[in-house]
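Quick entry, no commentary yet.
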Amino acid sequence: MPEQQQWTIAATEQPPEWFIEAVKQHTPASSGIYAAQLLWQRGIKDHQQLTAFINYKAYQPASPFEFGQEMHLAIARLQQADNVREKIAIWGDFDADGITATSVLWDGLGQFFKQNTQLIYYIPNRLKESHGLNNQGIDNLAKQGCKLIVTCDTGSTNTEEIIYAKQLGIDVIVTDHHTLPAQRPPVAAIINPRYLPKEHQLFHLSGVAVAYKLVEALYHTLPNVAKHPLEDLLDLVAVGLIADLVQLSGDCRYLAQLGIQRLQADFQQPAAARRRPGVGRLLELCQKSGDRPTDISFGLGPRINAVSRIQGDASFCVELLTSRDAKRCNELAEVTELANARRKSLQKDVQAQVAQKLTQLDLSTTSVIVLEDAQWPAGVLGLVAGQVAQETGRPTILLSTEGSGESGVGSGEDQEGISPSSPSSPSSPSSSSSPPLARGSARSVNSVDLYQLVKDQAHLLHRFGGHPFAAGLSLLVENIPLFTAAINQQLRQSLGTTTLTPTVQADLTLTVADLGKELFLELKLLEPCGMGNPVPKLLIQNCWFENSWHRNQQDWQGKKVQYIKTEFDIRDDSSRSVFPGIWWGHYKDELPIGRCDCIAELDYNTFKKRYEIRLIAVCPSVNSALNTQHGLNAPLSLTPLILDWRSYPTPHSLLPTPPLLLEDCPTNWDDLRAWLRRCLTISRSTSGLDNQQQLAIAWSKPNPQPPNQIWLTLVGIAKYLSRTNQLVTRVQLLEKIGITDQTLLVGIKALKDLGFTVKRQDRYLQITWHPSDNAENFAEAAVARFLAAVREEQFQRQYFAQVPLSTIVAIASSDNYMGTNL
């Protein structure tokens, strides 16, 4: 379960007056003080740095030939291919960075080599292959007559596969940004910014940006060949850069700035006139306009990533991003949107299962969280691992033992590039006699170099690869316990006395009155934000929430996805006006009642056309008058009052007073509040806190039947009762079907539409059936409402099955502050 977060405030150093004035020139509608403070904190401390950071026109980008001899070798080999009309294959990757990199080479090299005849592309299947080259794919390209492979966002460490390709008469040009090999592989050229000094302006390029630099070099070498300007590729570069979460400094920031402008300009065109109708349709589906980095990180990036996570094969995404056929692009965009909806649902399911397993861990003795399950789909493990790492403050590794393809956890949402640690072909299917492999994803926090941690256990692994904050790995299932113990011991030794705690850092302290358009435009000077330049986190103290409400999100075409969003208004003493906000993944009941402190990000909602905050963290205010009340309504200590027996039931004999047992999983907070009222009533009537009546939440994890099966069970019972003329109580029906009173009422209405008559006799129900030919058609809408009610109830139970005890205590405490309101 999530631990209590530690809040920190960024060290503040007041910038000099001349710097504030310089910043104000770029944001004349505001004071510029907040942007100046942030820029100063982040190392921008002179006029030249400031101008180059804010105004891309003042920045001098690096030449592609800064890559030196390797770039010259690559261009020479491409020219050779052109001279003798060799067939070239682009070998890409299946994540957002890899897909956009492939698209950049497809469009860019396509200016010099005829597409589909002299130039083709290959994207590995995420569920059957790993990142990087594999022998089976190379064989396929050899049969098609390819003599040159140009990789993008992959290939640096595929030495064995590169040698194999060479044996088949195929040269390889590697363009990549992942881990370097110990020795230069036998390639025609390898273009990887990691060969450059860390302070070089090209060092942080992602895969798509490296691919762009190769195309740029070709444009410079053959200036009169291309028919379309190089700048047409920049929108794709921006998508890949921002989705890959690389540090947006140097040329990365410059290219992202230019690309976002290009993206927005194309989206503003009529749909029929867009250069990239597929990108435009995706933006429409996610209700974005393309003018913000968050439109990519929360909109385009996750959708592109979702295709390979769900379908495995993401090859059509290149067509989606590059085709000019609007009708075809609309079809592909809709397939992508459906994949993203499915990804959200799978991710939510895995999150709930991981949360349950976390309750069985003692985090006080756990440095690296390692969890496994045979049913987890590999495609979403990186996303869930990232969330767990943030919530717990600990590196997290999630493994699937289901025996599907290599876990391809890539960039953007997933950042690892899996590189081989053994010469076995990643695409070779496991034989039935092969020992079972676990495959998974890892995420890190708190500046722990997870890649190095994993690498140090290479002797226990089948394959691994990645970055300091993200990695992918596979290992024998039998090695998991040894690997878990070893990696935990290694991190504990390196940490010494340092403890791992989930941390949220605020950058600025301000009030509700400061929020709005003026501040938004001022903070927009820092965009595009990313690693090394994060979105500003705003601390608002002694505030409170009003008009809160939540709902389950409906995805595209009404497809229900199991995640929630709370909307609210925030207020403090600085203004008589409220300011709107949202809190993703939380119920309104989780908002504290009374005054509190919160950390949030300021955003602009293009769909609702309003400025709003996105809540990041919240806790009761230390200055709140409500939190320091005395007398009868003073809050009781609720931590010992509420016991969490969902995983480890405690024998009653160990407690001085048996607790009240809550064994039925609730479906709303009111159910839980009713039990808390009983405890508080008993506790306040006793003398002293030692005699508190405790409440033990002891419900088991729900194991729901499919809603359709529940409906068939209800109909079957109704037919049986009608046939035997027996009576039934409401309680008997509820116990037999396993639903709530409210949902049963919806089901009875559906039975009536189906031709049943339901009459009450004292405390019994009499059910008779009068079938008709068109009853099923007549009842269709009512049955749909019942199924929806069952799904909603099951979603609520899943939430309460794993809601952290800290959340229950926080909500109970907030209500208790209000005294008699509980």
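second:
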Amino acid sequence: MDLVPALEEPLKKVLGPPTAKVMAEHLGLHTVGDLLHHYPRRYEERGQLTHLADLPMDEHVTVVAMVADARLQTYASAKTPRGKGQRLEVTITDGSGRLQLVFFGNGVHKPHKELLPGTRAMFAGKVSVFRHRLQLAHPAYELLRGDREETVETWAGALIPIYPATAKLESWKIGKALQTVLPSAQEAVDPLPPALREGRGLVTLPEALLKIHRPHTKADIADARARLKWDEAFVLQVALARRRHADAQLPAVPRRPSPDGLLTAFDDRLPFTLTEGQQKVSKEIFDDLATDHPMHRLLQGEVGSGKTMVALRAMLAVVDAGGQAAMLAPTEVLAQQHHRSIVEMMGELAEGGMLGGAEQATKVVLLTGSMGAAARRQALLDLVTGEAGIVIGTHALIEDKVQFHDLGLVVVDEQHRFGVEQRDALRGKGKQPPHLLVMTATPIPRTVAMTVFGDLETSVLDQLPAGRSPIASHVVPAADKPHFLARTWERVREEVQNGHQAYVVCPRIGDDIDEPADPKKAKKSAEDEAEKRPPLAVLEVADQLAKGPLQGLTVEVLHGRMHPDDKDAVMRRFAAGETGVLVATTVIEVGVNVPNATAMVIMDADRFGVSQLHQLRGRVGRGSAAGLCLLVTEMPEASAARQRLNAVASTLDGFELSRIDLEQRREGDVLGQAQSGARTSLRVLAVIEDEEVIAEAREEAVEVVTADPELTGLPGLRTALDALLDDEREQYLEKG
């Protein structure tokens, strides 16, 4: 939190332009304050050596180790055909494991002189595998002999901080830069109210910064981390509490359904009763809709728990009360799907103004970017006149041209795909701010909900409606047991022959203009390196299946680059049961509802995240027949990817999976930052482990904001908030 002028000093003034440029480009650090808040990832103790066995592949690491031996060898190559090429191989050890370092060409002379057996040093480089052994090629290193003044100074402490570093800037160089700026820490203004800090026995901010960068004992590190966690949790919760407070001040039109209107007519024609959960959540929503300030509610429900039904009843209640409701879906496939299923559920109640429409009926229109001009004009007209009570659409709903007669409720499906600007743009279309219901099928642990969706009240649907079937999930190890894969296709054939349908999901579309593999998604591991195979693609797999194991069945493809009309036609044929097997990308991940689809095969399942697999799996077992999900992978048994797949296969509890997911990934991914490539603003706070800190910080934040919404008496906190809410983090906070 870049608090005062000393901390706002640009790094290029303090460290010089070259170092500052690398820090800005590779670590996102621009000011003295940024650097002070770049905390060590861990600490090495002088007397102890790093565990070399645990090094992650393909990552930039810093290790402290001792040289075991060094050998200079000559070799012949294209450049040095006479065997004049030189290679220095150095083996370092941590007392148990060993790691090979290699230096080539002119780069061998300095390390050959310095890296003598028995020498201790810090080494930094990228871990790779060469001939089945871990190695670092041309690592940077810093000797820990203590005979050069600088080394004695820099590494005088018993604990050596290891910083998140990059190939361009090693950890010890970051450490030296911190040495230069550390005196400025004294000027850091404390964001915590004094009573809170003293009441919780936390050290001051300047003291915490000194202790985290230059600890003398492990207790120093613990003190510093405890204090810095509180800062992050508290400032974030104050920002959210202020947003909730501001929202509560806004006016809204209360919307109460009329006793024998559209909602009653709809409930009367339902062929089933709502689950207890649906009734409870509906009551929470209707209570919110009846108030004179806007509802802000997050509805999270397990895949298939009937969220759409709850949202539809809320929309009908608003139409009943004379308003309009808009539902925003992330993709055209999903918007069309919602439109189809809502019209089906409503029957003649969706035929407002048409012959045969019921008396209380309204019009339900679809608005997407690819609609024809005439249909689009009609839809826009129906919205502005109020003829259409319900509109379902994609981002096209947000365009300036779209005007409503009286927008009363906005339902956003799959929140994490919408930035808040979009949400606010749609909200701005009401004469007064409309009520807002946000839905997500990705179960979110309570702490994440408090941190990420902290400006929304939360409702949870965790019961499955009657008539939904359990889904059996199994991992298919295609490399170890090829006959399991053959059996997979036999199972698909059996399902189709029994009158059901199946999905086959692939990570890629697969044609010449294919999307580049996303390096973040496909974390390369040793196993991955070994085969360097691109992920399986829809077009190739569909072709192979139709000519091979699924010959004779109707196989169709669906992916994001098809024309919207073609996509819709494919979905309609599949929904009507004309297609036996649909080979698709993750466009089917959310909301697609075909009760007759009972089997899903996910190819290269290790390339998908845990919550994505859970979402995909939720597309089967939506009817009375049991669902089957087969996760096909070539990853070896011991790999982390296999463990992740085993976890997905072992439970259908989305909340349990979201915890596993969160423990396996960095928080930043969950908090929306990884997607945008920006750093997460959480540096020491771990959302799952620090549940208590977050819950307590939320309570304290509510108290502070209720007493002083403008924070006039807390200038340090205001400054910290401004730093947190610079543009990048404002988007983070608002779940962009």
